[in-house]
């Protein structure tokens, strides 16, 4: 198995500009392509209780032009150079990225630096992007069956407002936002010393360093944003909510557990336990519920990685007329089995091979390398962790998995959301 | 947006360099690695592309046979056969297969589309022989166990029900029916009744109709030792007997003369899903490249005209696009957006404005150049991962495109002229013959859009015709 396999370490070079911008270079000449990722240390967790949805609205504003780039010019310049780009917002960070033919790197640096130093925050842009965000919310949340369940369960799992509220936020709050609010948000969070710039792909290191200095070097640093408290109280509670979903064709449920922060040994153990429970056709719950009992249409699970308290979810859409509590009993039974007996050797081997495979595939694209490296740089202050991540996960022992599952999953400390179809008929 | 390029003059201050778009660095050449090709005695075509960038291997066993080849009374049989192949073979149960494949951290799946059936496997090169052997087992020795088929039938029926809660599915279902008429492309999905009557014998028959070596290509991309691989392939697939490939005749596409308006009533919808569609081209049509470029100008991306208009200027939607779906035998042109209910009519107005504009006015040279630059520039990006490179090669082989297709792709894009763009827009974007399909809250929508057609067809989400909005479907 995986002992025979040694991952080639990625070439990583890191340094900071005088204004505090952290820069990470990952040179890889396999194909003439380059990716640039800029990660700002701001997400929904930084939002004020009366301004939820702001981090995400702001992500839209970043495509509305800056001193030397016209409104929507960002898309246009990247696309006409043969590139792709986007931005996303999570609880933890807001990221912007582009992938281009390698010789177009100066374009990406020009565009990213111009909006970092001189974003155009105008009333017209704000009004227009508020509408785009509202459409995004209708499309992704309001008009989709089960579209709101993850936001709802986060409110049940987390007690701290910073963790509990949704990234899409409140449309009322967005309506109340003024141009001044947005400008202030920009000044505080979009400073070079609150960001990480990662460049991955085919380039000449010296040329890139000169370009980075030229485009980003004179952007002034700002006082760092206030410290954030994302801690959660210790508690033992079993939370339950029933949610009527007008668009859902079937009942469904979602169970969520609060677990330690990402990269904590217990988080890693639970990440592996999750793979054993719900990842793939040979996973325990797939075999019990989709195959054995034939009781569910769809089974899913995942971990939500955060720098503070994180979470793990297991959900199912059962077949009509199936007893939901019996299905939950099966899930809890498998969890108890891991808590009492731990995973077996074959399961450990399977997870090891899957982890190796995931790591190799992640390294194929310059964009996924840039994004992974940016997370390690921003969250852990060490981009080189990308080279030890796999070993860290492969080092998790069956006993650690057993203990973490017993402590965090086989417990009353969980949230259960029942979705009840409330449409016509 | 004009892109200001030019020479920087002497008087520039320290930040004046920011006012101009930077010049690109020297371009770096890129070419797709060459392919080795051979054929086994039974007609199985083998294509091997050496890709040493990663310790990975990708396999594709692809058949020139798909859902369109379903017998009229066995709709869904090719897809069902494909899905069931890894649910049991002569030497492995469904669980044993899943367990063995996942134990190696690998992946094998089989999927039938309208035109093709493809077995895909990908693995660390460390396990390439084991996965090749399992792929051979799945391809050649499936047993279609009755219990697994029973589960497949029930799960698929539930899945079909679930799909009906998705507005995008409902819109595509109507658009395909209106554009493709009696042709099998009109069917985006089998019905529950089709699935419930499938038998083991039918799946076995579908397997032997589809899995014929002389109608297949075996494609390998990755970090492989070619000689060793060829001998393994010969051991696994050399004794697979060839057989004549049946050919049937298919009905023609819909003969549309005017614009139609179809609304799927989904009371309580927060948005209207709009699809505008008309018949366009098959994949090998010589107009493919001009259409690709025209579509890039019009609506393929976030800097294309319909996105700039409906999202960036009007704020009607999160995204508005056009697309060309060119299948083996034919295809369509579509414009799509999910818009808030109150601006459904206004959105149609803007769509038709853009569809007419690209027909009536020559595309400015710079806009054409931008679209071409995008298409040529993203091409190497698509080959970055091994899966991406494999897909490029598989498409070239399956659609029987010229051997130098990948090499000449960028040149063909660059050769498209302003005149050609306008010609293909006039020929393949046909606002007066389009099927307008809207999924949403009919009582809120009808008045906004009724002027776009002489009559309106209304359906419920089950696909049954209804007389007026909000009407309950007749029991079925």
Structure description:
Chain A is of the alpha+beta class and 425 residues long. Chain A has 2 domains: 10-216, Cytochrome Bc1 Complex, Chain A, domain 1; 238-421, Metalloenzyme, LuxS/M16 peptidase-like (Cytochrome Bc1 Complex, Chain A, domain 1, 2-Layer Sandwich), CATH 3.30.830.10. In chain A, 43% of the residues lie in helices and 19% in strands. In chain A, the strands form 2 sheets. A 6-stranded mixed sheet of chain A has the order 1-2-6-3-5-4, sandwiched between helices. Chain A has a 5-stranded mixed sheet with strand order 7-11-8-10-9, with helices on both faces. In chain A, a hairpin with a 4-residue loop joins strand 4 and strand 5. Chain B has 476 residues and is an alpha+beta fold. Chain B has 2 domains: 35-237, Metalloenzyme, LuxS/M16 peptidase-like (Cytochrome Bc1 Complex, Chain A, domain 1), CATH 3.30.830; 260-459, Metalloenzyme, LuxS/M16 peptidase-like (Cytochrome Bc1 Complex, Chain A, domain 1, 2-Layer Sandwich). Chain B is 39% helix and 18% strand. Chain B is built from 16 helices and 12 strands. Chain B has helices at 77-84, 94-103, 128-140, 146-163, 167-180, 192-196, 200-210, 226-237, 288-298, 305-313, 344-360, 365-381, 386-398, 405-414, 418-428, 442-449, and strands at residues 35-39, 45-50, 56-63, 107-112, 117-124, 216-222, 260-265, 271-279, 317-326, 331-340, 435-440, 456-459. In chain B, strands 1-2-6-3-5-4 form a 6-stranded mixed sheet, sandwiched between helices. In chain B, strands 9-10-8-11-7-12 form a 6-stranded mixed sheet, with helices on both faces. In chain B, strand 1 (35-39) and strand 2 form a beta hairpin. In chain B, helix 3 runs parallel beside helix 8. Chain B is globular, with a radius of gyration of 25 Å. Chain B starts with 34 loop residues before the first strand and ends in a 17-residue tail after the last strand. The model of chain B is unreliable at 1-12 (pLDDT under 50). Chains A and B meet through helix 2, strand 5, helix 3, helix 4 and helix 9 of A and helix 2, helix 4, helix 10, strand 10 and helix 12 of B.
């Amino acid at each position: 198995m995986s002992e025979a396999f040694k991952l080639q370490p990625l070439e990583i070079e890191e340094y900071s500009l005088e204004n505090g911008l952290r820069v990470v270079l990952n040179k890889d000449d396999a194909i003439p392509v380059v990716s640039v990722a800029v990660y700002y240390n701001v997400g929904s967790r930084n939002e004020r209780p009366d301004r939820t949805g702001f981090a995400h609205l702001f992500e839209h504003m970043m495509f509305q032009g800056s001193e030397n780039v016209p409104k929507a010019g960002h898309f246009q310049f990247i696309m006409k150079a043969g590139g792709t780009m986007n931005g996303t917002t999570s609880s933890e960070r807001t990221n912007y990225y582009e992938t281009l033919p390698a010789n177009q790197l100066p374009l990406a640096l020009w565009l990213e630096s111009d909006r970092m130093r001189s974003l155009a925050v105008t009333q017209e842009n704000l009004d227009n992007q508020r509408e785009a965000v509202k459409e995004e919310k209708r499309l992704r949340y309001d008009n989709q069956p089960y579209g709101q369940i993850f936001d709802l369960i986060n409110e049940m799992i987390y007690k701290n407002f910073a963790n509990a509220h949704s990234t899409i936020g409140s449309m009322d709050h967005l309506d109340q936002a003024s141009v001044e609010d947005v400008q202030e948000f920009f000044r505080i969070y979009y400073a070079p010393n609150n960001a990480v710039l990662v460049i991955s792909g085919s380039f000449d290191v010296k040329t890139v360093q000169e370009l980075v200095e030229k485009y980003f070097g004179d952007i002034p640093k700002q006082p760092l944003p206030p410290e954030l408290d994302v801690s959660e109280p210790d508690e033992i509670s079993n939370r339950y909510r029933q949610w009527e979903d007008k668009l859902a064709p079937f009942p469904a449920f979602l169970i969520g557990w609060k677990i330690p922060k990402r990269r904590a040994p217990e988080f890693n153990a639970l990440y592996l336990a999750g793979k054993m429970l719900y990842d793939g056709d040979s996973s325990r719950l797939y075999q019990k519920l989709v195959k054995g009992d034939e009781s569910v249409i769809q089974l899913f699970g995942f971990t939500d990685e955060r720098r503070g308290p994180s979470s793990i979810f297991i959900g199912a859409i059962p077949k009509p007329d199936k007893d939901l509590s019996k299905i939950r009993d099966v899930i809890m039974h498998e969890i108890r089995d891991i808590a009492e007996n731990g995973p077996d050797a074959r399961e450990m081997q399977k997870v090891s091979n899957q982890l190796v495979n995931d790591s190799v595939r992640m390294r194929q694209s310059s964009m996924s390398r840039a994004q992974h490296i940016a997370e390690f740089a921003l969250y852990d202050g060490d981009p080189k962790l990308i080279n030890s991540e796999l070993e860290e996960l492969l080092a998790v022992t069956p006993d650690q998995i057993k203990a973490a599952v017993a402590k965090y999953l086989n417990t009353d400390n969980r949230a259960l959301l029942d979705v009840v179809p409330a449409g016509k008929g | 947006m004009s892109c200001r390029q030019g020479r920087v003059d002497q008087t520039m201050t320290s930040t004046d360099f920011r006012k101009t778009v930077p010049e690109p660095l020297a371009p770096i050449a890129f070419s797709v690695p060459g392919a080795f090709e051979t054929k086994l005695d039974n007609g199985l075509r083998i294509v091997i592309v050496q890709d040493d960038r990663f310790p990975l291997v990708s396999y594709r066993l692809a058949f020139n046979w798909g859902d369109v080849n379903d017998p009229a009374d066995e709709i869904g049989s090719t897809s069902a056969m494909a899905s069931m192949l890894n649910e049991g073979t002569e030497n492995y149960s469904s669980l044993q297969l899943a367990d063995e494949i996942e134990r190696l951290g690998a992946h094998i799946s089989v999927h039938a589309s309208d035109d093709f059936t493809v077995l895909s496997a990908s693995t660390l090169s460390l396990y390439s022989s084991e996965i090749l052997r399992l792929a051979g087992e799945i391809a050649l020795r499936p047993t279609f166990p009755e219990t697994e088929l029973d589960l497949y039938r029930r799960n698929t029926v539930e899945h079909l029900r679930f799909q009906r809660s998705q507005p995008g599915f409902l819109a595509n279902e109507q658009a395909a029916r209106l554009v493709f008429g009696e042709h099998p492309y009109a069917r985006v999905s089998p019905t529950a009744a089709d699935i419930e009557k499938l038998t083991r014998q039918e799946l076995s028959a579908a397997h032997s109709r589809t899995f014929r070596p002389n109608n297949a290509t075996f494609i390998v991309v990755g970090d492989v030792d070619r000689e060793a691989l060829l001998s393994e392939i010969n051991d696994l697939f050399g004794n697979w007997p060839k057989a004549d490939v049946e050919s049937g005749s298919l009905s023609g596409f819909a003969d549309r003369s005017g614009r139609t308006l179809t609304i799927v009533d989904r009371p309580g919808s927060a948005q209207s899903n709009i699809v505008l569609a008309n018949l366009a081209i098959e994949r090998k049509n010589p107009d493919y490249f001009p259409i690709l470029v025209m579509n890039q100008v019009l609506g393929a991306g976030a800097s294309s005209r319909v996105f700039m208009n409906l999202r960036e200027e009007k704020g009607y939607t999160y995204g508005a696009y056009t697309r060309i779906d060119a299948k083996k035998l034919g295809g369509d042109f579509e414009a799509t957006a999910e818009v808030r209910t109150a601006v459904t009519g206004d959105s149609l107005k803007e769509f038709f404005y853009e569809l007419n504009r690209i027909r009536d006015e020559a595309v400015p040279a710079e806009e054409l150049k931008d679209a071409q630059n995008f298409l040529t520039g993203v091409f190497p990006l698509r080959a970055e991962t091994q899966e991406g490179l494999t897909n490029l090669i598989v498409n070239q082989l399956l659609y029987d495109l010229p051997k130098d297709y990948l090499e000449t792709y960028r040149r063909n894009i660059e050769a498209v002229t302003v005149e050609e763009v306008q010609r293909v827009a006039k020929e393949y974007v046909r606002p007066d013959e389009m099927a307008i399909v809207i999924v949403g809250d009919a009582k809120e929508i009808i008045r906004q859009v009724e002027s776009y057609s002489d009559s309106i067809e209304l359906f419920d989400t089950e696909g049954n015709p209804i007389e007026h909005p909000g009407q309950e479907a007749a029991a079925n």
